[in-house]
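ugh finaly. both done.
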Amino acid sequence: MNTYEDFKKEILALTKIDLNAYKEQQMKRRIDSLVKKNNFKGYPDYTDALKKKGEVFDEFINYITINVSEFYRNPDQWKLMDEQFLPDLINRFGKNLKVWSAACSTGDEPYSLVMAFSKHIPMNQIRINATDLDKTVIAKAKVGLYDAKSIAGVPADLKKKYFTPVGPSFQISDEIKKHVTFREHNLLKDKYDTNYDFIICRNVLIYFTEDAKAEVFKKFSDSLKPGGLLFIGSTEQIMKYKEIGLKRENSFYYRKEG
Protein backbone atom coordinates (compact mmCIF):
# COMPACT_ATOMS: atom_id res chain seq x y z
CA MET A 1 0.00 0.00 0.00
CA ASN A 2 2.11 2.84 -1.29
CA THR A 3 -0.09 4.87 -3.60
CA TYR A 4 -2.64 7.56 -2.82
CA GLU A 5 -5.32 5.29 -4.32
CA ASP A 6 -4.43 2.61 -1.75
CA PHE A 7 -4.46 5.22 0.99
CA LYS A 8 -7.97 6.34 0.03
CA LYS A 9 -9.23 2.75 0.32
CA GLU A 10 -7.68 2.41 3.78
CA ILE A 11 -9.27 5.68 4.91
CA LEU A 12 -12.67 4.59 3.63
CA ALA A 13 -12.41 1.36 5.63
CA LEU A 14 -11.10 3.14 8.72
CA THR A 15 -13.36 6.21 8.83
CA LYS A 16 -16.13 5.78 6.20
CA ILE A 17 -14.83 9.00 4.65
CA ASP A 18 -14.68 8.64 0.86
CA LEU A 19 -11.80 10.84 -0.28
CA ASN A 20 -12.89 10.25 -3.90
CA ALA A 21 -15.70 12.72 -3.24
CA TYR A 22 -13.22 15.54 -2.63
CA LYS A 23 -11.27 17.44 -5.26
CA GLU A 24 -8.24 15.19 -5.75
CA GLN A 25 -5.41 17.67 -6.15
CA GLN A 26 -6.49 19.88 -3.27
CA MET A 27 -7.12 17.04 -0.83
CA LYS A 28 -3.96 15.09 -1.74
CA ARG A 29 -1.91 18.23 -1.17
CA ARG A 30 -3.43 18.69 2.28
CA ILE A 31 -2.78 15.06 3.24
CA ASP A 32 0.77 15.04 1.87
CA SER A 33 1.54 18.10 3.98
CA LEU A 34 0.26 16.25 7.07
CA VAL A 35 2.42 13.22 6.31
CA LYS A 36 5.46 15.45 5.91
CA LYS A 37 4.67 17.56 8.97
CA ASN A 38 4.52 14.46 11.19
CA ASN A 39 7.72 13.01 9.73
CA PHE A 40 6.17 9.82 8.35
CA LYS A 41 8.02 8.07 5.52
CA GLY A 42 4.90 7.62 3.44
CA TYR A 43 1.25 6.57 3.38
CA PRO A 44 1.78 3.11 4.99
CA ASP A 45 3.47 4.53 8.09
CA TYR A 46 0.91 7.30 8.32
CA THR A 47 -1.98 4.85 7.99
CA ASP A 48 -0.55 2.68 10.77
CA ALA A 49 -0.48 5.74 13.05
CA LEU A 50 -4.05 6.66 12.10
CA LYS A 51 -5.27 3.18 13.06
CA LYS A 52 -4.23 3.80 16.65
CA LYS A 53 -7.02 6.44 16.88
CA GLY A 54 -4.86 8.83 18.89
CA GLU A 55 -3.78 12.42 18.38
CA VAL A 56 -2.59 11.77 14.82
CA PHE A 57 -6.04 10.44 13.91
CA ASP A 58 -7.85 13.40 15.51
CA GLU A 59 -5.55 15.83 13.71
CA PHE A 60 -6.23 14.09 10.40
CA ILE A 61 -10.02 14.26 10.79
CA ASN A 62 -9.89 17.87 11.88
CA TYR A 63 -7.58 18.79 9.01
CA ILE A 64 -9.42 17.17 6.12
CA THR A 65 -12.85 18.36 7.17
CA ILE A 66 -11.69 21.97 6.73
CA ASN A 67 -13.39 23.81 9.56
CA VAL A 68 -13.76 27.50 8.82
CA SER A 69 -16.75 28.95 10.59
CA GLU A 70 -18.06 32.08 12.24
CA PHE A 71 -21.30 33.40 13.69
CA TYR A 72 -23.70 35.16 11.29
CA ARG A 73 -21.37 34.56 8.34
CA ASN A 74 -22.46 36.79 5.42
CA PRO A 75 -24.67 39.11 7.55
CA ASP A 76 -26.82 40.26 4.62
CA GLN A 77 -28.10 36.71 4.15
CA TRP A 78 -28.93 36.40 7.85
CA LYS A 79 -30.76 39.74 7.67
CA LEU A 80 -32.80 38.37 4.77
CA MET A 81 -33.57 35.27 6.84
CA ASP A 82 -34.69 37.43 9.76
CA GLU A 83 -36.87 39.79 7.74
CA GLN A 84 -38.27 37.51 5.05
CA PHE A 85 -37.69 33.79 5.28
CA LEU A 86 -38.22 33.03 8.98
CA PRO A 87 -41.57 34.87 9.06
CA ASP A 88 -42.52 32.98 5.88
CA LEU A 89 -41.61 29.59 7.37
CA ILE A 90 -43.53 30.33 10.56
CA ASN A 91 -46.54 31.40 8.52
CA ARG A 92 -46.42 28.16 6.52
CA PHE A 93 -45.52 25.61 9.18
CA GLY A 94 -46.07 27.20 12.59
CA LYS A 95 -43.50 27.74 15.32
CA ASN A 96 -42.43 24.14 15.92
CA LEU A 97 -40.08 24.09 12.96
CA LYS A 98 -37.89 21.11 12.14
CA VAL A 99 -34.42 22.54 11.38
CA TRP A 100 -31.13 20.93 10.34
CA SER A 101 -27.73 22.61 10.41
CA ALA A 102 -25.66 20.24 8.25
CA ALA A 103 -21.84 20.22 8.39
CA CYS A 104 -22.15 22.51 11.41
CA SER A 105 -18.43 22.63 12.25
CA THR A 106 -17.73 24.17 15.68
CA GLY A 107 -21.35 25.15 16.33
CA ASP A 108 -21.24 28.77 15.17
CA GLU A 109 -24.04 28.20 12.67
CA PRO A 110 -26.61 26.28 14.76
CA TYR A 111 -26.07 28.64 17.70
CA SER A 112 -26.57 31.58 15.32
CA LEU A 113 -29.83 29.94 14.23
CA VAL A 114 -31.08 29.71 17.82
CA MET A 115 -30.38 33.42 18.34
CA ALA A 116 -31.99 34.36 15.01
CA PHE A 117 -35.06 32.23 15.70
CA SER A 118 -35.41 33.66 19.22
CA LYS A 119 -36.62 36.94 17.71
CA HIS A 120 -39.60 35.11 16.19
CA ILE A 121 -40.25 31.98 18.25
CA PRO A 122 -40.42 31.40 22.04
CA MET A 123 -37.07 29.95 23.14
CA ASN A 124 -38.67 26.79 24.52
CA GLN A 125 -39.98 25.91 21.03
CA ILE A 126 -36.62 26.17 19.25
CA ARG A 127 -34.91 22.88 18.35
CA ILE A 128 -31.93 22.68 16.00
CA ASN A 129 -30.47 19.39 14.76
CA ALA A 130 -26.77 19.93 14.07
CA THR A 131 -24.49 17.40 12.41
CA ASP A 132 -20.88 17.13 11.32
CA LEU A 133 -18.52 14.44 10.12
CA ASP A 134 -15.88 15.40 12.66
CA LYS A 135 -16.36 14.39 16.28
CA THR A 136 -13.55 16.76 17.28
CA VAL A 137 -15.41 19.86 16.13
CA ILE A 138 -18.64 18.55 17.63
CA ALA A 139 -16.82 18.33 20.96
CA LYS A 140 -15.65 21.93 20.49
CA ALA A 141 -19.20 22.99 19.63
CA LYS A 142 -20.56 21.46 22.82
CA VAL A 143 -18.01 23.44 24.85
CA GLY A 144 -19.06 26.63 23.06
CA LEU A 145 -15.91 28.70 23.56
CA TYR A 146 -15.05 31.12 20.72
CA ASP A 147 -12.50 33.80 19.91
CA ALA A 148 -13.39 37.43 19.19
CA LYS A 149 -13.12 36.95 15.41
CA SER A 150 -15.68 34.11 15.41
CA ILE A 151 -18.34 36.19 17.15
CA ALA A 152 -17.59 39.52 15.41
CA GLY A 153 -20.77 39.27 13.33
CA VAL A 154 -23.13 38.65 16.27
CA PRO A 155 -25.49 41.62 16.81
CA ALA A 156 -24.33 43.68 19.80
CA ASP A 157 -27.47 43.05 21.89
CA LEU A 158 -27.23 39.27 21.42
CA LYS A 159 -23.49 39.28 22.09
CA LYS A 160 -24.08 41.05 25.39
CA LYS A 161 -26.96 38.76 26.33
CA TYR A 162 -25.56 35.36 25.38
CA PHE A 163 -21.73 35.52 25.63
CA THR A 164 -19.50 35.72 28.70
CA PRO A 165 -15.81 36.76 28.40
CA VAL A 166 -13.39 34.02 29.48
CA GLY A 167 -9.86 35.36 29.19
CA PRO A 168 -9.42 36.33 25.52
CA SER A 169 -12.33 34.09 24.50
CA PHE A 170 -16.12 34.13 24.84
CA GLN A 171 -18.38 31.39 26.25
CA ILE A 172 -21.85 31.01 24.76
CA SER A 173 -24.61 30.62 27.33
CA ASP A 174 -26.29 27.34 28.26
CA GLU A 175 -29.58 29.05 27.41
CA ILE A 176 -28.55 28.87 23.75
CA LYS A 177 -26.68 25.55 23.89
CA LYS A 178 -29.57 23.53 25.26
CA HIS A 179 -31.60 24.10 22.09
CA VAL A 180 -29.07 22.39 19.80
CA THR A 181 -28.61 18.63 19.51
CA PHE A 182 -25.29 17.57 17.99
CA ARG A 183 -24.46 14.23 16.36
CA GLU A 184 -22.02 12.78 13.85
CA HIS A 185 -23.24 12.47 10.27
CA ASN A 186 -21.52 11.80 6.95
CA LEU A 187 -23.28 13.68 4.14
CA LEU A 188 -22.01 11.22 1.55
CA LYS A 189 -22.67 7.93 3.35
CA ASP A 190 -25.32 8.25 6.05
CA LYS A 191 -29.10 8.24 5.77
CA TYR A 192 -30.85 11.63 5.75
CA ASP A 193 -33.84 12.36 7.97
CA THR A 194 -36.97 13.78 6.29
CA ASN A 195 -39.75 16.36 6.72
CA TYR A 196 -37.46 19.29 7.43
CA ASP A 197 -38.86 22.79 7.23
CA PHE A 198 -35.43 24.39 6.96
CA ILE A 199 -31.96 23.03 6.10
CA ILE A 200 -28.81 25.12 6.26
CA CYS A 201 -25.53 23.88 4.78
CA ARG A 202 -23.03 26.56 3.85
CA ASN A 203 -19.53 26.75 2.39
CA VAL A 204 -18.83 23.03 2.71
CA LEU A 205 -19.76 21.48 -0.62
CA ILE A 206 -17.25 23.66 -2.49
CA TYR A 207 -14.68 21.03 -1.51
CA PHE A 208 -16.69 18.21 -3.13
CA THR A 209 -16.63 17.00 -6.73
CA GLU A 210 -19.52 18.07 -8.98
CA ASP A 211 -21.05 14.58 -8.79
CA ALA A 212 -20.85 14.52 -4.99
CA LYS A 213 -22.38 18.01 -4.77
CA ALA A 214 -25.26 17.00 -7.02
CA GLU A 215 -25.90 13.91 -4.90
CA VAL A 216 -25.98 15.89 -1.64
CA PHE A 217 -28.23 18.64 -3.03
CA LYS A 218 -30.66 15.97 -4.28
CA LYS A 219 -30.72 14.38 -0.81
CA PHE A 220 -31.33 17.77 0.81
CA SER A 221 -34.25 18.35 -1.54
CA ASP A 222 -35.70 14.92 -0.70
CA SER A 223 -35.34 15.74 3.02
CA LEU A 224 -37.41 18.94 2.82
CA LYS A 225 -41.14 19.25 3.18
CA PRO A 226 -42.90 20.84 0.19
CA GLY A 227 -42.46 24.56 0.79
CA GLY A 228 -39.38 24.03 2.97
CA LEU A 229 -36.18 26.01 2.47
CA LEU A 230 -32.53 25.18 1.81
CA PHE A 231 -29.95 27.87 2.70
CA ILE A 232 -26.54 27.44 1.03
CA GLY A 233 -23.25 29.35 1.14
CA SER A 234 -22.13 32.41 -0.77
CA THR A 235 -19.48 30.35 -2.57
CA GLU A 236 -21.97 27.75 -3.83
CA GLN A 237 -24.72 27.37 -6.39
CA ILE A 238 -27.09 24.58 -7.40
CA MET A 239 -26.72 24.16 -11.13
CA LYS A 240 -29.80 22.04 -11.93
CA TYR A 241 -32.08 22.93 -9.05
CA LYS A 242 -35.30 22.50 -11.05
CA GLU A 243 -34.39 18.89 -11.81
CA ILE A 244 -34.29 18.04 -8.10
CA GLY A 245 -37.57 19.79 -7.27
CA LEU A 246 -36.25 23.14 -6.01
CA LYS A 247 -37.24 26.69 -6.86
CA ARG A 248 -34.70 29.50 -6.53
CA GLU A 249 -35.96 32.17 -4.15
CA ASN A 250 -32.71 34.09 -3.88
CA SER A 251 -29.02 33.53 -4.69
CA PHE A 252 -28.63 31.37 -1.56
CA TYR A 253 -32.18 30.26 -0.69
CA TYR A 254 -34.02 27.48 -2.51
CA ARG A 255 -37.58 26.29 -1.83
CA LYS A 256 -38.86 22.74 -2.23
CA GLU A 257 -41.60 22.69 -4.87
CA GLY A 258 -45.07 21.45 -4.07
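ok and the 2nd:
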Amino acid sequence: MTTSMKQHWDNVYSSKKINQLGWYEEISAPSLELLSKCDINKGVTLLDIGTGASTLIDSLIEAGFTNIIASDISETALSKLRERLGKEKAALVKWIVDDITNPVHIQNLGEVDLWHDRAVLHFLVKKDERDTYLATLKMVVKQGGYVLIATFSLNGAKKCSGLDIRNYDEKLLVEFMGEEFELIEHFDYMYYMPSGEARPYIYTLFQRK
Protein backbone atom coordinates (compact mmCIF):
# COMPACT_ATOMS: atom_id res chain seq x y z
CA MET A 1 0.00 0.00 0.00
CA THR A 2 1.06 3.58 -0.57
CA THR A 3 0.40 7.13 0.55
CA SER A 4 -2.51 7.16 -1.89
CA MET A 5 -3.98 4.16 -0.04
CA LYS A 6 -3.74 6.02 3.24
CA GLN A 7 -5.53 8.94 1.60
CA HIS A 8 -8.15 6.56 0.24
CA TRP A 9 -9.06 5.28 3.70
CA ASP A 10 -8.89 8.71 5.31
CA ASN A 11 -11.34 9.92 2.66
CA VAL A 12 -13.65 6.94 3.22
CA TYR A 13 -13.84 7.56 6.95
CA SER A 14 -14.24 11.31 6.45
CA SER A 15 -17.05 11.04 3.92
CA LYS A 16 -19.53 8.77 5.71
CA LYS A 17 -20.96 8.17 9.13
CA ILE A 18 -19.40 5.10 10.73
CA ASN A 19 -22.68 3.18 10.88
CA GLN A 20 -23.19 3.71 7.14
CA LEU A 21 -19.93 2.06 6.12
CA GLY A 22 -20.29 -1.21 4.24
CA TRP A 23 -18.40 -3.21 6.90
CA TYR A 24 -19.94 -1.67 10.02
CA GLU A 25 -20.90 -4.12 12.77
CA GLU A 26 -23.03 -3.05 15.72
CA ILE A 27 -21.51 -6.00 17.57
CA SER A 28 -18.51 -7.99 16.32
CA ALA A 29 -20.26 -11.26 17.14
CA PRO A 30 -18.22 -13.76 15.05
CA SER A 31 -14.90 -12.34 16.23
CA LEU A 32 -16.05 -12.44 19.85
CA GLU A 33 -17.23 -16.02 19.38
CA LEU A 34 -13.78 -17.13 18.22
CA LEU A 35 -12.07 -15.04 20.87
CA SER A 36 -14.03 -16.91 23.54
CA LYS A 37 -12.41 -20.15 22.33
CA CYS A 38 -8.88 -18.89 22.99
CA ASP A 39 -7.15 -19.94 26.20
CA ILE A 40 -6.23 -16.43 27.31
CA ASN A 41 -6.76 -14.14 30.27
CA LYS A 42 -7.81 -10.50 30.36
CA GLY A 43 -4.24 -9.26 30.69
CA VAL A 44 -2.91 -10.65 27.42
CA THR A 45 -1.81 -8.44 24.52
CA LEU A 46 -4.44 -8.20 21.76
CA LEU A 47 -3.44 -6.57 18.47
CA ASP A 48 -6.25 -5.51 16.12
CA ILE A 49 -4.99 -4.95 12.58
CA GLY A 50 -7.11 -2.55 10.52
CA THR A 51 -9.20 -1.43 13.47
CA GLY A 52 -10.95 1.35 11.59
CA ALA A 53 -13.75 2.49 13.89
CA SER A 54 -14.64 -1.07 14.94
CA THR A 55 -16.99 -1.73 17.83
CA LEU A 56 -14.79 -4.74 18.69
CA ILE A 57 -12.61 -2.37 20.72
CA ASP A 58 -15.66 -1.32 22.77
CA SER A 59 -16.48 -4.97 23.45
CA LEU A 60 -12.91 -5.82 24.47
CA ILE A 61 -12.84 -2.93 26.93
CA GLU A 62 -16.22 -3.90 28.34
CA ALA A 63 -15.01 -7.50 28.71
CA GLY A 64 -12.13 -6.28 30.87
CA PHE A 65 -9.15 -6.74 28.55
CA THR A 66 -6.39 -4.41 29.68
CA ASN A 67 -3.75 -4.58 26.94
CA ILE A 68 -5.46 -3.70 23.65
CA ILE A 69 -3.56 -2.34 20.64
CA ALA A 70 -5.57 -0.73 17.83
CA SER A 71 -3.77 -0.25 14.52
CA ASP A 72 -4.92 1.23 11.24
CA ILE A 73 -3.49 2.99 8.20
CA SER A 74 -6.08 5.75 8.67
CA GLU A 75 -5.58 8.31 11.42
CA THR A 76 -9.06 9.60 10.60
CA ALA A 77 -10.63 6.23 11.41
CA LEU A 78 -8.80 5.89 14.72
CA SER A 79 -9.66 9.48 15.65
CA LYS A 80 -13.34 8.76 15.14
CA LEU A 81 -13.08 5.66 17.29
CA ARG A 82 -11.27 7.51 20.07
CA GLU A 83 -13.93 10.22 19.96
CA ARG A 84 -16.73 7.64 20.27
CA LEU A 85 -15.04 5.85 23.14
CA GLY A 86 -14.40 9.02 25.08
CA LYS A 87 -11.18 9.97 26.86
CA GLU A 88 -11.47 7.51 29.73
CA LYS A 89 -11.95 4.41 27.60
CA ALA A 90 -9.63 5.60 24.82
CA ALA A 91 -6.85 5.90 27.38
CA LEU A 92 -7.11 2.13 27.95
CA VAL A 93 -6.01 1.43 24.35
CA LYS A 94 -2.63 1.78 22.65
CA TRP A 95 -3.13 3.49 19.28
CA ILE A 96 -0.85 2.89 16.27
CA VAL A 97 -1.14 4.48 12.83
CA ASP A 98 0.72 2.07 10.57
CA ASP A 99 0.57 0.34 7.20
CA ILE A 100 0.71 -3.44 7.56
CA THR A 101 2.28 -3.71 4.08
CA ASN A 102 5.11 -1.37 5.11
CA PRO A 103 5.07 -1.35 8.91
CA VAL A 104 7.11 1.07 10.96
CA HIS A 105 5.77 0.46 14.47
CA ILE A 106 3.97 -2.89 14.59
CA GLN A 107 7.07 -5.05 14.29
CA ASN A 108 8.54 -3.30 17.34
CA LEU A 109 5.65 -4.16 19.66
CA GLY A 110 7.24 -7.26 21.12
CA GLU A 111 5.19 -10.42 21.52
CA VAL A 112 1.42 -10.38 21.21
CA ASP A 113 -0.96 -13.13 22.34
CA LEU A 114 -3.65 -12.55 19.72
CA TRP A 115 -3.63 -11.03 16.24
CA HIS A 116 -7.08 -10.03 15.01
CA ASP A 117 -7.80 -9.05 11.41
CA ARG A 118 -11.29 -8.63 10.06
CA ALA A 119 -11.16 -7.60 6.40
CA VAL A 120 -7.58 -6.39 5.91
CA LEU A 121 -5.83 -9.39 4.37
CA HIS A 122 -8.26 -9.62 1.47
CA PHE A 123 -7.21 -6.15 0.30
CA LEU A 124 -3.62 -7.34 -0.18
CA VAL A 125 -3.73 -8.41 -3.81
CA LYS A 126 0.03 -8.15 -4.40
CA LYS A 127 2.32 -10.97 -3.29
CA ASP A 128 4.89 -8.65 -1.71
CA GLU A 129 2.14 -7.08 0.42
CA ARG A 130 1.01 -10.49 1.65
CA ASP A 131 4.60 -11.56 2.29
CA THR A 132 5.21 -8.49 4.46
CA TYR A 133 1.92 -9.04 6.30
CA LEU A 134 2.84 -12.64 7.13
CA ALA A 135 6.44 -11.83 8.06
CA THR A 136 5.20 -9.14 10.46
CA LEU A 137 2.62 -11.52 11.94
CA LYS A 138 5.30 -14.13 12.54
CA MET A 139 7.55 -11.50 14.09
CA VAL A 140 5.07 -10.52 16.79
CA VAL A 141 2.73 -13.46 17.50
CA LYS A 142 4.18 -15.51 20.35
CA GLN A 143 4.49 -19.28 20.42
CA GLY A 144 1.09 -20.59 21.46
CA GLY A 145 -0.50 -17.30 20.44
CA TYR A 146 -3.64 -17.00 18.35
CA VAL A 147 -4.41 -15.49 14.95
CA LEU A 148 -8.00 -14.63 14.05
CA ILE A 149 -8.47 -13.73 10.37
CA ALA A 150 -11.73 -12.98 8.55
CA THR A 151 -11.86 -12.30 4.81
CA PHE A 152 -14.37 -12.30 1.98
CA SER A 153 -15.03 -15.92 1.06
CA LEU A 154 -14.63 -17.40 -2.41
CA ASN A 155 -18.31 -16.61 -2.96
CA GLY A 156 -17.85 -13.09 -1.64
CA ALA A 157 -17.52 -9.73 -3.34
CA LYS A 158 -14.61 -9.14 -5.70
CA LYS A 159 -14.35 -5.47 -4.78
CA CYS A 160 -14.85 -3.40 -1.64
CA SER A 161 -14.68 0.37 -1.27
CA GLY A 162 -13.69 0.51 -4.95
CA LEU A 163 -10.64 -1.72 -4.40
CA ASP A 164 -9.90 -5.19 -5.75
CA ILE A 165 -10.18 -8.14 -3.37
CA ARG A 166 -8.37 -11.47 -3.02
CA ASN A 167 -10.92 -14.06 -1.88
CA TYR A 168 -10.23 -17.02 0.41
CA ASP A 169 -11.58 -20.19 1.90
CA GLU A 170 -10.14 -22.02 4.91
CA LYS A 171 -7.82 -24.13 2.73
CA LEU A 172 -6.28 -21.05 1.12
CA LEU A 173 -5.83 -19.42 4.52
CA VAL A 174 -4.19 -22.58 5.90
CA GLU A 175 -1.82 -22.52 2.93
CA PHE A 176 -1.12 -18.83 3.48
CA MET A 177 -0.38 -19.22 7.20
CA GLY A 178 1.93 -22.19 6.71
CA GLU A 179 3.00 -25.10 8.88
CA GLU A 180 3.82 -22.97 11.94
CA PHE A 181 0.11 -22.42 12.57
CA GLU A 182 -2.67 -24.89 13.31
CA LEU A 183 -6.24 -24.18 12.21
CA ILE A 184 -8.36 -24.44 15.36
CA GLU A 185 -11.75 -23.48 13.96
CA HIS A 186 -13.36 -21.94 10.91
CA PHE A 187 -16.85 -21.09 9.73
CA ASP A 188 -18.65 -19.29 6.95
CA TYR A 189 -20.49 -16.17 7.99
CA MET A 190 -23.03 -14.08 6.13
CA TYR A 191 -22.62 -10.42 6.96
CA TYR A 192 -25.32 -7.96 5.98
CA MET A 193 -24.24 -4.44 5.13
CA PRO A 194 -26.20 -1.45 6.47
CA SER A 195 -27.76 -1.34 2.97
CA GLY A 196 -29.06 -4.89 3.50
CA GLU A 197 -26.76 -6.42 0.88
CA ALA A 198 -25.21 -9.77 1.80
CA ARG A 199 -21.44 -10.25 2.08
CA PRO A 200 -20.17 -13.84 2.54
CA TYR A 201 -17.12 -14.10 4.85
CA ILE A 202 -14.85 -16.89 6.04
CA TYR A 203 -13.70 -16.69 9.68
CA THR A 204 -10.65 -18.63 10.87
CA LEU A 205 -8.85 -19.11 14.16
CA PHE A 206 -5.23 -20.33 14.16
CA GLN A 207 -2.80 -21.09 16.96
CA ARG A 208 0.97 -20.90 16.62
CA LYS A 209 2.57 -24.26 17.32
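summary for the 2nd one i guess: Strands lie at 45-49, 67-72, 93-97, 112-118, 141-152, 159-160, 163-164, 181-192, 198-208.
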